[in-house]
Write a structure and sequence with these properties.
Helix 7 runs antiparallel to helix 10 and helix 7 packs across helix 11. The chain folds into two domains: 227 residues, no CATH class; 102 residues, 3-Layer(aba) Sandwich (abc type-2 transporter like fold). The longest helix has 31 residues. With 363 residues, it is an alpha/beta fold. The chain contains 15 helices and four strands. Strands 2-1-3-4 form a four-stranded mixed β-sheet, with helices on one face. Helix 3 links the parallel strand 1 and strand 2.
Length: 363
C-alpha cells in the first residue's frame, strides 16, 4: 500500500508541489512579512531650546537606529496636521527651558506625542523613548549635569538576546506550516480514490483498514520529515535563527506531531470524498486554529477564558512550545516531556480516527 501510494504521489505533480514547494514558500513569505519589530519610526521635532543639551538628546534618538527624523517643526500648530495625515508617528517637543533646568540640577521635561491609533506600536514607541531618555539622563549625570534618576535598571535577556521577533516567529512557523501541509496532503488520498474510480480496486484488496491507512500515511510521513528538516535549515540559514537543541529529539517529536496531522487529513478525506472539498476543509480546520489559537500570533494568556480552554484542543499549541524550546533555549526531554506525551496522544488519536473513518465498503 505504501509503494502504491508513493507511485501515485510521484505521478501527481500538484501534490508534489504542495509537498515540497508550499512549505518553503510559506516559510519565506511569512518569515519576511510577519514582524513585531518596530523600526524606522517616523519622527518630527519641535525644538524650542536649540541648546547643546537638546541636540545631544536628539542625537541619542538618531543613534538608536529606531527613529527616522522627517521634519523640524517651527510651531506647535504643525503637530496636529502631521499626526492626522499619518505623516509621522512620534513628535518630540523640547521646551524652551530644557537646558536651563538641566544646568540648574532640576528635572527637565521632554514631551513625546504619539499616534495611538495602533496601540501596540504606540506602546513600543513609548518604551523606546523612555529607554533613550533614561540612558541620556545617566550620561548627563556622568558628565556633571546633576541629573539624578531615582532608579537604574540593569537587564539581561536570555535566549533571544537581541529581542528579534523573527527568532520567535520562524520556529512557530515551522509548527503552523507542518500542521497545514500535512493535513492537506493526506486530505487528498481517499478523496482521490473516489474521484478516479479506483476505490473498487482498493476495496477488493485483501488488506485490513489499518494497513490501508498506514500504507497511505508512510510516504507522507517521510515527506513531512523532509519538510521539517528543510524548514529548520532555511530558518537557520536565511533568518539566522539559532538552533540550540537536540536534532534527534526534534525529529522524534516532529514525527509524532506529523502522524497526528496526517491522520486528521485522512479523516477529512474519508468524510469529504471530494479533493476540492477536502482541501477546503483541511485549510479551515488547520490554518485558522494553528495561526490564531496556538500562541503563534497572540499570547494565549490575554485571550478570553473560553478561547483559552479551546486552545488546549489545538495540537500546534504544544508543538510551538517544542520548536521554540529547541531552537532558542536548547532544552531537553526534562522540559518537554509533557509536550512529548501530548504529541504521542495526538498521533494515536489521529491514527485511530483515520482507521475508524475509513471504510472499504462501497455502499
Amino acid at each position: 500500500m505504501a509503494r502504491k501510494e508513493a507511485i501515485q504521489l510521484r505521478r501527481d505533480t500538484r501534490s508534489l508541489i504542495l509537498a515540497f514547494l508550499l512549505p518553503v514558500l510559506l516559510l519565506v513569505i511569512f518569515g519576511y512579512a510577519i514582524s513585531w519589530d518596530v523600526r524606522d519610526i517616523r519622527t518630527a521635532v519641535l525644538n524650542q531650546d536649540q541648546s547643546a543639551h537638546a541636540r545631544e538628546l536628539l542625537d541619542a534618538f538618531r543613534a538608536s537606529g529606531y527613529f527616522t527624523f522627517r521634519s523640524d517643526l517651527a510651531r506647535a500648530q504643525e503637530i496636529g496636521p502631521l499626526l492626522d495625515g499619518v505623516g509621522v508617528q512620534l513628535v518630540l517637543v523640547i521646551p524652551p527651558d530644557f537646558s536651563a533646568r538641566l544646568n540648574a540640577g532640576r528635572p527637565a521635561a521632554l514631551q513625546a506625542i504619539v499616534d495611538g491609533s495602533d496601540a501596540n506600536t504606540a506602546t513600543i514607541i513609548l518604551a523606546y523613548t523612555r529607554a533613550i531618555v533614561l540612558s541620556y539622563s545617566l550620561d548627563a549625570q556622568l558628565q556633571g549635569a546633576r541629573v539624578n534618576p531615582p532608579v537604574t535598571l540593569e537587564s539581561r535577556v536570555w535566549y533571544n538576546e537581541e529581542l528579534l521577533s523573527r527568532n520567535m516567529i520562524v520556529p512557530g512557523l515551522v509548527a503552523v506550516i507542518m500542521m497545514i501541509v500535512a493535513a492537506m496532503l493526506t486530505s487528498l488520498t481517499i478523496a482521490r480514490e473516489w474521484e478516479r474510480g479506483t476505490m473498487e480496486q482498493l476495496a477488493a484488496t485483501p488488506v485490513a483498514r489499518a494497513e490501508v491507512v498506514l500504507g497511505k500515511l508512510l510516504p507522507y510521513l517521510g515527506i513531512g520529515l523532509v519538510d521539517v528538516v528543510v524548514s529548520a535549515v532555511l530558518g537557520v540559514w536565511i533568518f539566522d535563527v539559532p538552533f540550540r537543541g537536540n536534532v534527534l529529539l526534534f525529529m522524534g517529536l516532529s514525527a509524532f506531531f506529523l502522524t497526528g496531522a496526517l491522520g486528521l487529513g485522512v479523516v477529512i478525506s474519508a468524510l469529504a470524498r471530494s479533493q476540492l472539498l477536502a482541501t477546503q476543509i483541511a485549510m479551515i480546520v488547520t490554518f485558522l486554529p494553528a495561526y490564531l489559537l496556538s500562541g503563534f500570533m497572540y499570547a494565549i494568556s490575554v485571550m478570553p477564558a473560553p478561547l483559552q480552554l479551546l486552545t488546549y484542543l489545538i495540537p500546534a499549541r504544544y508543538f510551538i512550545v517544542v520548536t521554540r524550546g529547541l531552537f532558542l533555549k536548547g532544552v531537553g526531554p526534562e522540559a518537554l516531556w509533557l509536550q512529548g506525551l501530548l504529541m504521542i496522544v495526538f498521533a494515536a488519536l489521529g491514527l485511530g480516527l483515520a482507521i475508524r473513518s475509513f471504510r472499504k465498503e462501497l455502499g
